[in-house]
Design a protein that fits this description.
Elements: E1 13-17, H1 21-33, E2 37-41, H2 44-52, E3 59-63, H3 71-81, E4 86-91, H4 96-104, E5 109-112, H5 117-129, E6 137-142, E7 145-149, H6 152-165, E8 171-174, H7 181-191, E9 199-203, H8 209-217, E10 218-219, E11 231-232, H9 234-237, E12 242-246, H10 253-265, E13 267-268, E14 277-278, E15 282-287, H11 291-296, H12 302-308, E16 312-314, H13 325-340, H14 349-357, H15 363-377, H16 380-403, H17 411-427, H18 432-439, H19 443-452, H20 461-469
Parallel strand pairs: 1-2, 1-3, 3-4, 4-5, 8-15, 8-16, 9-12, 12-15
Antiparallel strand pairs: 6-7, 10-11, 13-14
Helix pairs in contact: 2-3, 3-14, 6-7, 13-15, 14-16, 17-18, 18-19
The protein binds adenosine-5'-triphosphate (ATP) and magnesium ion.
Amino acid sequence: MKTVFLPHAEPLRILAVDDDAAMLRYIHTLLELDGHRVSTAVSGEEALALLRGGLKPHLMLLDMMMPERDGMVTLAETRRDFPAVKVVMLTGVSDTHQVVAAMKLGAFDYVTKPFRKPDLDAVIAMAQEKPQGPIETVEELTDDLYFLAASDATRKLREQAGRMALVDVPVLLLGESGTGKEVTAHLIHKLSSRAGKPFLKVNCAAVPAELLESELFGYEAGAFTGAVQAKPGKFEQCQKGTFFLDEIGEMPPQLQAKLLHVLQDGTFSRLGGRTQLKCDARVLAATNIDVQSSLQNRQLRADLYYRLSALTLQIPPLRERKEEIPLLLKHFMVRSAERLGRPILPVSPAMLVACHEYSWPGNLRELGNFVKRYLVLGDEESALREIRGLTSAGQSAAVGGLTEGGVAKPFAQDASEAVRLARALEDSRWNRRVAAEQLGLSYRELLQKMKQHGLTSEPDPRVQRTSAGR
Ligand SMILES: Nc1ncnc2c1ncn2[C@@H]1O[C@H](COP(=O)(O)OP(=O)(O)OP(=O)(O)O)[C@@H](O)[C@H]1O
Ligand SMILES: [Mg+2]
């Protein structure tokens, strides 16, 4: 007789879900033999009803192929509403594609059917071993700014940020547009000993080159025409605080040299001033450009880069941590509904799946904006249509990129191109370089297409910024 040896194994509460009654009985018998407490459900609906009714299984064994609400959809809903439940998918051998999707959606593991006792034992042992750990943590950084971590990748990022917070040297934050560089900078500030002091930021791409220097370092009266009164710069205002230099790659090279100097000896002077001022701000810098190529074309000074990059944090794109999508959707929904003073709308299983299939080139910002649009329009059908349209547009764009045909596009496609351009621009806050990258176009091509579709940039933020700043 075979002895089943489960080292320090606590019996688990297990919910088995399968439309096949014989399969359910089989699982039930196998698991109860080992002392687990087993509940069963014959459909996704029933499983979710049990969870809503207060059943708290450690583990859910979930059949992938069920009529009506299939396993994938049930998985998505479980991840959204009961993230503490570890879900193991029961799949057919040929479901590779679906297995991959399920794992990305946050399934704990999978077992292929037909399976035998040892297969089941292996996943259960894993579920017992792997400590539960926090499924999601949300930290409020400032008013309306949150850091949510719901994947291993983001938890690791959170941990690294925590360690970097303790060392008082610059950090370079790298990552695509909308991945959370600014949020992470806030997080580092909040976890550092400078937390009670100011967090100031300058976006080097949004301030015109000729104003950037005075914005950073301030000026004395008479330093230039129009400088009637002396004005301190951001560095000076950032006493003992953290200074976030966003889009550092857009800083003019001479100014990069001046910044390097400040980082090296900790002093600077206002424009037109002689007094040496002490800089005691910690600098965090961010960029979404490709560092290697901007070093090569000297857009980014190598000496500044090496000074800034002793500590580097690379923030992964959303498509590499898709298991966070259900929780992020819920997070954005709750926060945006609150802010907009609107009722929370349902995030349906169909929506979860559609969101999961899309690649989110604009990352978390795009997802957040999508939720806002859905909230404002209040119409799930059109939200679904939008996201599915983007998914297939992305797919056909990828194909088009390969064939590179010069065929004239029908009007409808043309219109959707305009929409895609507009969205990419909006999601990158009209940063054309970033938008072009997202769209897989060259900068020049994007400008051409913008002209062709009559897309002009929103009112120039520079104009607003400088006039409002006075
Ligand atoms: N970990 C996170 N948890 C919750 N919200 C997040 C997280 N990361 C990013 N966000 C949200 O996503 C949006 C974009 O984040 P952020 O502005 O930090 O991106 P970014 O990398 O600085 O983008 P860009 O390069 O375009 O400036 C913000 O609305 C932010 O609140
Ligand atoms: Mg940013």
